[in-house]
Structures are given as structure tokens and as C-alpha cells.
């Protein structure tokens, strides 16, 4: 190893990663299948000439998309932090893009640090599915009442036990989570469900989306969502909406999480 | 052939077809490659038990999408006209959907009849391409001035010789076309170019989009588009924008084109 490299100090780099989840078996690395984490590890390792394994903020399921998932990794590379984005984009497949790269404090861990996550779930509310939207929406041909869905979603805001809105296979010990805000609105022929929280259980946003869809088509009333929360029983809430309508929009970390001065979270 | 079938009268059915052009070698039938027309012919023929060849309104290029291309075909099938849409959707691949089906007068020909066609071209105007939009937009990282693009597009309205905005391989004898309206506007992180006309030359919308992009980034002024029209020379206009940003939105035919009473064009 050259003197130059041994003298380089490790630095921790954070990437904001967007991807089209259609062709991936989810974010988390698995042997012998295409995962976002696997592709990132391969391409970063080639770029820096070290064996890199990223730490991801969110292990999104197969078919789920992201505008702003977060990964961090340590490297002795002398590549300036903000140059990782263009350097990696010249190597990565087109369905993964690095939207931003910066240096973060050495101990920064995207799952252990406080963060606010924004998810969107999109329902295409048309008589017939639109082919160009089939991989990015859940199609529902029943007329949906977005106002009722919005009213129902607001009951989720605050700290609640979300056992009814969690896949029973979860490994989380506590099912209490804090939803910071919700907004459900019609956008053209789509209904967008936007949820901000500082933590989500396994399949939580997709179960909320499935439950709101049933409220929107009149199977349940907005107030029923309160009873579902109280029941702490997965069987009382709606179905798990399919993965392709879900987008991890962004992570927000407290100020000071970045080392570079030129950008703020 | 059974008596029942021989007594059935031919009727002409019109389908409104939406497709994601990503996986197709364009609309027009070609031997041994996947085309929208080929897939439609195969599936309609199986459904009606006759050998059907559709007549398409627009032969969109490889990678171009449609919300409302039009095809017609003749059949002796007793399937009610409005049932062709759901019946075909249960057979077709997910990237082709029949949005509507109806009966039209026997002689109705979608290319020989007067029609108004609406196209949209979408430019994604962000620093980094967004993976989920890569197959449905043209990415441009330069800041674009949508107002200038809109002003420029308005100069195209009316009857003009569009030689400068036409692929030189066109087989059209006259290059005079009538643009009915144009509208260019920012929609979130996209710039949408909407053009309505009663006829378009080969690659005309894509060359207009490429030219407007250059005006939007300041390489040309809006008024320059008038000089380009006058020059009648393909080399003076902008580049041909790539196919994936182009959507054939809809066809409008004169009233009375449909035989069913329950819908209007």
C-alpha cells in the first residue's frame, strides 16, 4: 500500500439515492439477485478501489421506488465528497441515480440518527389502467373520495400503536410510532397519499394506503380508522397495497449532519 | 361456415389504444419484432376467431407512447362494440390497454378522415435524471425558460411549410401542415409541450421539441423560429428530441364518426 493511501484518513460519505425499483429484488443485499444495495456496493468499490459495503437508511421492498433513500460508507478515497454523485452516475445503470453526495460526521448512522421520512403512495383512479403508469401506481377503477381519505389519514397523526398497520412478520419490539403529518389529495388522475414520520413499521405505509383506498371507495368511514388503531390487530385494517405505488421521497436529518458547508438537509 | 356466421354482417370497430412504447419497435407491424400493431392483430384475431389486420391512425416510432392512438378493423363477431375493450384487456400484455371501443360507419378510415391530434412532449428539467421518469421524459439539466419556449411555439400556429421541422426521409409530397394550437408550460419538474394539429410530418413534434429546448436554454430566441420556418431547410432547426418524451395524447374526429349513441368524440 502506498504511503499516500495509508496517510489518507477515512471519511464517511453520504449519498442520496433515487431508483426505479421495478427491476430490483428490493434495496437490501441478497446473494445472486439484483438489489440496489448490491449494485451500489459493486460500483462504489470499483470507483474507490476498496471493498465498500454501504449502510442504507431504508430497506425498501421489491418494486418500491425512491427519490431520496440514503446510504453512507467509509472510504480513504481522495475524491471530493461532492464528486461522488457524478462519478457514480457515469457507472451506475440508468435506473439508479445519485442525486447528491456529501461528507457526514464519522459516527453518522442513517438508521440510528433521528430523521423525518417522507413517503408517497400513488393510486391511479381511472376506469382503465394507463400503461405508462403501471409500474408507478396502484390502479383502482372505483371512484375514490380523496377528501374522505384525507380526513381518515389525519387521524393517524401523532404517537400511536400501529400494530393494526404492520405486517405480522415484523421484528420490531415496539409498535409505537409517531406520524408527523399526512396529506391526501387528487393530482390529475392520481390520488397521492403523503405521510411524514420519524419511523415506520414493516409495510406500514402500504397497509395505510390499502386502508385509505377502502375508505375512499366507501367500504369504511374515516372515523373507522380510530377503531382500527385501538384494536391493535392487523386483521381489522385494509389490505397491503402493492409495492409499485410506493415512493420513498426524502429523508431529513437534523442540521449539522453534513460536513460540507454548501448544503443543508 | 355456420349459417349464423355467414349471416352476420361485417361491422367496423374503432379502438382507442394506450401503450407504453418502451418495449416495442414502434406501432407499425414488422415481421419478427414486437410491434403494437402486431400484438393487436394477434389478440383481436384470437378473440374474434377471424384473421384481423387493424388500420392504425398513427404509426408512432419505437419508444413513443400513446394514451389514445386509434385503430379500426372489420369483424363479423357478435361481441357488442363496447365489450371489445374489456375483452381485449383480459388478453393483452399490461403495456397495451384498450381505453374505449365503439362501432364506426363502415367506410370510416382513421387516416383519411379529418382529425385533430394532440401530442405532448415532456422534458425533465432537473440537475440529475430521475430514474422512474427515464422512459417517459427527455432529461435536460440546463435551466429552461418555459415562457420563452411557449412564445416560440405560438409562432408555429397556423398553416406553414414545415420542411425545416421534418425528417429528410419523409415521403410526404406536401410539407404544409396546419397547427391548431400550442401550449408550453412547467408542470412540477417537467416542461410539457402540447401541440394540436390536423396532420404532422415525420418526426415533426420531436424536431419542434428539440428546437424549443434550444430556445429554452438560450441558444436561440423565440423569434428565430419564424426564420427557421421560412428557410425550409432541416439543418436550420434544432435536434430531433429522443422518442421516449413523446406521447400521442388523443385523436378527435368530427361528430358522427361513431355509431354508438352513448359517446361523443
Describe what this molecule looks like in 3D.
2 copies of one chain form a homodimer. Chain A is an alpha+beta fold and 265 residues long. Chain A has 2 domains: 11-104, Alpha-Beta Plaits; 116-252, Pseudouridine synthase I, catalytic domain, C-terminal subdomain (Alpha-Beta Plaits, 2-Layer Sandwich). The first copy, chain A, contains 6 helices and 10 strands; from the N terminus they run αβαββαβββαβββααβ. In chain A, strands 1, 2, 3, 4, 5, 6, 7, 8, 9 and 10 form a 10-stranded mixed β-sheet that branches. Chain A is globular, with a radius of gyration of 20 Å.
Radius of gyration of chain A from CA coordinates = 20 Å
Number of strands of chain A: 10
Tell me which CATH architecture of the largest domain in chain A applies here.
2-Layer Sandwich
Biggest sheet layout of chain A: 10 strands, mixed
What is the general shape of chain A? Answer: globular
Greatest chain-chain contact: A-B, 23 and 23 residues
What is the percentage of strand-forming residues of chain A? 25-35%
Helix content, binned percent of chain A: 10-25%
* CATH fold description of the largest domain in chain A: Alpha-Beta Plaits
What ranges of chain A have pLDDT less than 50 throughout 5 or more consecutive residues?
1-6, 260-265
The total number of structural domains of chain A is 2
CATH class of the largest domain in chain A: Alpha Beta
Oligomer: homodimer
Please state the average pLDDT score of chain A.
93
Count of DSSP-assigned helices of chain A? 6
Amino acid at each position: 500500500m502506498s504511503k499516500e493511501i495509508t496517510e489518507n484518513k477515512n471519511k464517511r460519505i453520504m449519498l442520496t439515492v433515487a431508483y426505479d425499483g421495478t427491476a430490483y429484488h428490493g434495496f437490501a443485499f441478497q446473494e445472486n439477485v439484483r438489489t440496489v444495495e448490491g449494485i451500489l456496493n459493486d460500483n462504489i468499490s470499483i470507483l474507490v478501489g476498496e471493498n465498500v459495503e454501504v449502510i442504507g437508511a431504508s430497506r425498501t421492498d421489491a418494486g418500491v421506488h425512491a427519490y431520496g433513500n440514503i446510504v453512507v460508507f467509509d472510504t480513504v478515497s481522495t475524491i471530493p465528497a461532492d464528486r461522488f454523485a457524478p462519478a457514480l452516475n457515469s457507472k451506475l445503470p440508468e435506473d439508479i441515480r445519485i442525486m447528491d453526495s456529501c461528507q457526514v460526521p464519522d459516527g453518522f448512522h442513517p438508521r440510528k440518527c433521528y430523521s423525518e421520512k417522507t413517503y408517497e403512495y400513488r393510486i391511479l383512479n381511472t376506469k382503465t389502467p394507463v400503461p405508462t403508469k403501471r409500474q408507478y401506481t396502484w390502479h383502482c377503477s372505483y371512484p375514490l373520495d380523496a377528501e374522505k381519505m384525507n380526513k381518515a389519514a389525519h387521524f393517524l397523526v401523532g404517537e400511536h400503536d400501529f400494530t393494526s398497520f404492520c405486517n405480522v412478520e415484523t421484528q420490531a419490539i415496539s409498535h409505537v410510532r409517531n406520524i408527523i403529518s399526512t396529506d391526501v389529495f387528487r393530482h390529475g388522475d392520481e390520488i397521492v397519499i403523503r405521510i411524514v414520520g420519524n419511523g415506520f413499521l414493516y409495510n406500514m405505509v402500504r397497509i395505510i394506503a390499502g386502508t385509505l383506498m377502502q375508505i375512499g371507495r366507501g367500504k369504511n368511514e374515516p372515523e373507522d380508522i380510530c377503531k382500527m388503531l385501538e384494536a391493535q390487530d392487523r386483521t381489522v385494517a385494509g389490505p397491503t397495497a402493492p409495492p409499485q405505488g410506493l415512493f420513498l421521497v426524502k429523508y431529513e436529518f437534523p442540521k449539522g449532519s453534513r460536513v460540507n458547508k454548501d448544503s443543508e438537509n
